[in-house]
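Chapter review: from sequence to fold.
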Amino acid sequence: MAGGAHAPADFVVVGANHRSSTATLRDLIFVEDGAAHSFLRRLGQRGIGQALVLSTCDRVEIEGVASDRDAARRVVAAELAARARLDPATLEGQLYCLSGASALRHMFGVAASLDSAVVGEPQVLGQLKAAHRLSRDAGTIGNELETALQAAYGAAKRVRSETAIALGPVSIVATAIELAREVHGELEHLTALVVGSGEMGQYLAEEFKRAGLTRLIVTAPNFARAEALARRLDGHFTDFATFASALTNVDVVITNAGLGKYLVTGEMMEHVLRRRRRRPVYLIDLGVPSDVEGAVNRVDDAYLYDLADLERLALAGRVNREAAADAAWRIVDDELAAFERARAERAAAPMLVALRRHFERVREEVLAQGGRVDAGEATRLLINRLLHDPSEVLRALGADVDERGDRALAERLLQRLFRLDAGENSPGDEQFLKEFDREMKK
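The token string follows.
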């Protein structure tokens, strides 16, 4: 990549999520599964050879490995803008770009569902693994990215098994289903409409189907998202422009669009209920910001609950959720530190192999002298020869005023590497230095 020919490659994340961007922009830059292969290939041609693209309602982001963070941001912004037929400048202020340790922590947090609109929702880990498989098929998963993703999955598993982070969404869904039964009775003959493709909405729809609901309709501003979600949920999809007319025929409405405007108003629901002859409608508003006007609750036979209502009824308060999230982040940071240690050890391995090879070569040269030296002389020669090159470099660094800081740094590094005690000289040190000087002059 331009500007990074001599820079070491590192992890990078570039994307737009529910905090940085509008839902409208994320719909425009959404990369559906069928387009992922060609999208990743174009990134590879422009210098991002290791990458996956994670496209969900909450985020469209590229996780990868690159040598130049700023260049990676420009490439991703250009490719996403081209998909949406926008000027890349339109994306400015709505994209985030992370690199190094920050990118890794973000990747681990996404896998553990700590970066989702609803913390703890279970959808994103499956979506990340699906994106991983697509990228592997496209040939854009190298060793660095593969190792990081596997470590992120391990962190996510610990978070779900060692904290209560997953209990919030589970209890919220159970409460939502129980309320549906209170409004409608059994679910077998009901029809539900899912508006938007957010992770929590998908999860809720899946659980409604498991609880007995048989008919499900999906709509979303992005046709490709709606079609993919309907296929995943074994339901039907309808045109977003005319979804209001579908309200007459549905008993449960799950909104998760967050477009910044009301999709369902009190006046709209009054008309719908008259056409339904006052058969009740149960609405669950998961949108952030809200998709359903609060006035709907004042319409007879309309029962509206938002996420805060469901959470309150499930007795899963904000304090408990934040405590679980804090514990989860501690696990993520612990796993991240372990990953970084292992990564540093792997990075040091080639130099350790080269050092051992060098030591072996010197040892063989000393042993090649055969019977000319005894064991004591051989070990003395071995030590002197091993120290020859480092000593010359240290002396050269000390002789050059501009490089004396480098010498101090090298000496500190040697102390750490060999656990040296640079205290007072011992009686044998003077003799050793004289012999060593003679050896250096040979």
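Two observations follow directly from the output. The chain has a mean pLDDT of 86. The longest helix spans residues 318-367.
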